[in-house]
C-alpha cells in the first residue's frame, strides 16, 4: 500500500473549503443558489473522506490527525445546523377576474384590514385578465390596470414589484418588502402555452422563480382546461408544464428542482358523481368534507405519480365557482347552447386552488448519511387557506393562502454596498461609491439606478449609470462611478441608489436614503 500523505488529503481540502479558507474561487452566475449545490459538494467530500479512512495505514499519528480533522468538520456542520431559523411570510392570491377591472377595495384580500399583517412577500396570480387586442397591446407598452392598481396600494406600504409575467389573460406579480430586496436574487420568469395544442395562450402557465436568502422558490400560476369531462387533459397539461417549462441560467432548470414549488390558479377541477342539488345542500349545511373525496384533484393526487408530494390545506370554505356576478349566489342563469336550447347550470366546484411541494430527497441521499440533516433547513407552514366571498366582479371568488416559510438564511449580507458621496444637486456631477463581496461577479450590463424613496418597481428609476462605462476609479475595496449633472432631477427630494446585477437579475444592493437638492 502506498504511504498516505495527510499534507494533501481530500479531508484538508474539504476543511479549507468549509471554513472559507480557499482563495481565488470563481463564482458562477448561480452562486446564490447554494442550497442544493453546496449539499452535493459536501456529500462528495464526505465520500472522499470515508475512502481516505479506509486507505490509511496503522500509523497512530495519521489516525490522530484524522480524528482531529473529523472533529473539526463536525464542529463546522454543527454550527451550520444550529444556525438561526427565520420566518418569511408569504401571502398568495389566486383569482379568475373574468376580464373585469379591479374592485375599489382589496384590503381583506391582502390582509390590510388586520393589525400588523407582517407579510414579507405578496404573490398575486390572476387569470382571465382582459386580453382583447386593444387592451393587450396597451398593456405591452404600459403596465396593465391590475398591476398599476396593486402598486398604488402596496408601494406606500413599503413593497416593491420585483417581477411580473403576462401571457394573454394570465398575470403573475411578485411584491417584496423593501428590506428583503437584496436577498431576493436569481429572478427568472417563464411561460408555457397549452391552449390549441400549445399554440394559444388562453390556457397554460406563467412562472417566476427566485432565490430567497439562498433557497430556491418557484411560483406557478396556471389556467387549466374547463369542463367536467376534461380531467385527463388538465392532468396532461400540468404534467407537461412540470416537464417542459425551463428557466434561463445554470443553477436550476426544471420546476421540481426548486426547494419549494407553489402551484395555484384556476385549475378547473370539478366535483364528480354528486348532483347539483346534493352539492348545494351540503354547502348550505357547511358540511364541505362530504365533497372532498369526489373532488377531481383530490382523486388525482392519490393516483398520479407526478402529483406525489403536492400538499394542500383543507377545503373548509365554499366552492369558489360558479357565481352570479356581484353576488354570493351560485349560478342561477341557464346557459344557452349553440342551437339556442337551454343548457345545464354549472355545479359548484373548488376550481381555484393553492398547493405547494417541498423538494424531494432521493432515497440514496436520505437515511443516516452525514449531511442529510441539511435538507431540513426549510419548512413551509400554512397559516390560513380561505376564499373571499364578498368579491363579485367575476363568477369566481378569490382564494388566498398565507404561509410561513421557516428557513436558515444562506445569504446574510447583501452582495453589494452602495453609497452616495458628497452633496447631490443638478449643478455638478454626482459621485457614487460601491463595493462588492469577494465572490461577486459583476457584468458590463450592471448599472446603478437613482430611485425616489417609495419607488414602485425595479424599472421605476429616475436615471442610472453603467458600472463599467461610467466608472471613474477602481480598487479592490471600493469602486466609483458618476452620474452627469444633466441627468439629475431638478426638483430634488429623497432618493435611494440601487445596484442592478445582470447575472442575478436583481437589485443586489440598496443605499441608505439621502437628499438631493
UniProtKB/TrEMBL annotation:
Gene Ontology CC annotation, any one: plasma membrane
Listed InterPro entries: Endo/exonu/phosph_ase_sf (IPR036691), IP5 (IPR046985), IPPc (IPR000300), SKICH (IPR041611)
Domain of life: Eukaryota
Family: Belongs to the inositol 1,4,5-trisphosphate 5-phosphatase type II family.
Protein name: Inositol polyphosphate-5-phosphatase K
GO molecular function: inositol bisphosphate phosphatase activity; phosphatidylinositol-3,4,5-trisphosphate 5-phosphatase activity; phosphatidylinositol-4,5-bisphosphate 5-phosphatase activity
Residue runs in coiled coils: none
UniProt domain Inositol polyphosphate-related phosphatase: residue ranges: 86-411
Organism: Leptobrachium leishanense
GO terms for biological process, alphabetical: negative regulation of glycogen biosynthetic process; negative regulation of insulin receptor signaling pathway; negative regulation of phosphatidylinositol 3-kinase/protein kinase B signal transduction; phosphatidylinositol dephosphorylation
UniProt xrefs under Gene3D superfamilies: 2.60.40.2840, Endonuclease/exonuclease/phosphatase
Amino acid at each position: 500500500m502506498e504511504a498516505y500523505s495527510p499534507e494533501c488529503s481530500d479531508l484538508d481540502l474539504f476543511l479549507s473549503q468549509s471554513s472559507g479558507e480557499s482563495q481565488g474561487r470563481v463564482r458562477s452566475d448561480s452562486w446564490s443558489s447554494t442550497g442544493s449545490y453546496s449539499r452535493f459538494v459536501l456529500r462528495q467530500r464526505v465520500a472522499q473522506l470515508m475512502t481516505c479512512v479506509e486507505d490509511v495505514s496503522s500509523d497512530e499519528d495519521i489516525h490522530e490527525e484524522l480524528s482531529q480533522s473529523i472533529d473539526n468538520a463536525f464542529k463546522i456542520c454543527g454550527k451550520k445546523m444550529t444556525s438561526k431559523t427565520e420566518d418569511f411570510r408569504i401571502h398568495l392570491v389566486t383569482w379568475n377576474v373574468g376580464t373585469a377591472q379591479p374592485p375599489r377595495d382589496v384590503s381583506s384580500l391582502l390582509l390590510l384590514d388586520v393589525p400588523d399583517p407582517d407579510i414579507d412577500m405578496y404573490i398575486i396570480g390572476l387569470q382571465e385578465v382582459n386580453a382583447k387586442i386593444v387592451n393587450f397591446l396597451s398593456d405591452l407598452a404600459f403596465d396593465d390596470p391590475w398591476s398599476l392598481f396593486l402598486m398604488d396600494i402596496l408601494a406606500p406600504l413599503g413593497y416593491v414589484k420585483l417581477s411580473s409575467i403576462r401571457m394573454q389573460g394570465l398575470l403573475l406579480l411578485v411584491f417584496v418588502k423593501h428590506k428583503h430586496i437584496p436577498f431576493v436574487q436569481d429572478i427568472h420568469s417563464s411561460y408555457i402555452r397549452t391552449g390549441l395544442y400549445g399554440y394559444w395562450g388562453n390556457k397554460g402557465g406563467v412562472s417566476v422563480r427566485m432565490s430567497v436568502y439562498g433557497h430556491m422558490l418557484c411560483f406557478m400560476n396556471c389556467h387549466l382546461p374547463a369542463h367536467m369531462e376534461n380531467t385527463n387533459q388538465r392532468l396532461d397539461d400540468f404534467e407537461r408544464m412540470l416537464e417542459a417549462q425551463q428557466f434561463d441560467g445554470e443553477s436550476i432548470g426544471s420546476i421540481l428542482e426548486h426547494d419549494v414549488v407553489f402551484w395555484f390558479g384556476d385549475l378547473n377541477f370539478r366535483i364528480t358523481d354528486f348532483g347539483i342539488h346534493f352539492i348545494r345542500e351540503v354547502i348550505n349545511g357547511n358540511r364541505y368534507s362530504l365533497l372532498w373525496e369526489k373532488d377531481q384533484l383530490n382523486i388525482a393526487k392519490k393516483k398520479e405519480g407526478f402529483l406525489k408530494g403536492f400538499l394542500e390545506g383543507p377545503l373548509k370554505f365554499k366552492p369558489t365557482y360558479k357565481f352570479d356576478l356581484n353576488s354570493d349566489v351560485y349560478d342561477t342563469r341557464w346557459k344557452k347552447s349553440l342551437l339556442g336550447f337551454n343548457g345545464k347550470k354549472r355545479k359548484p366546484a373548488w376550481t381555484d386552488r393553492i398547493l405547494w411541494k417541498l423538494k424531494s430527497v432521493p432515497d440514496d441521499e436520505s437515511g443516516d448519511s452525514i449531511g442529510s440533516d441539511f435538507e431540513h433547513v426549510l419548512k413551509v407552514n400554512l397559516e390560513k387557506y380561505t376564499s373571499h366571498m364578498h368579491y363579485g366582479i367575476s363568477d369566481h371568488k378569490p382564494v388566498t393562502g398565507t404561509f410561513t416559510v421557516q428557513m436558515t438564511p444562506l445569504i446574510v449580507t447583501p452582495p453589494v454596498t452602495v453609497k452616495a458621496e458628497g452633496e447631490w444637486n443638478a449643478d455638478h456631477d454626482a459621485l457614487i461609491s460601491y463595493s462588492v463581496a469577494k465572490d461577486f461577479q459583476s457584468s458590463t450590463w450592471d448599472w446603478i439606478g437613482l430611485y425616489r424613496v417609495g419607488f414602485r418597481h425595479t424599472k421605476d428609476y429616475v436615471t442610472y449609470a453603467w458600472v463599467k462605462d461610467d466608472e471613474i476609479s477602481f480598487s479592490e475595496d471600493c469602486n466609483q462611478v458618476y452620474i452627469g449633472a444633466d441627468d439629475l432631477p431638478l426638483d430634488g427630494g429623497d432618493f435611494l441608489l440601487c445596484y442592478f446585477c445582470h447575472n442575478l437579475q436583481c437589485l443586489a444592493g440598496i443605499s441608505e436614503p439621502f437628499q438631493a437638492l
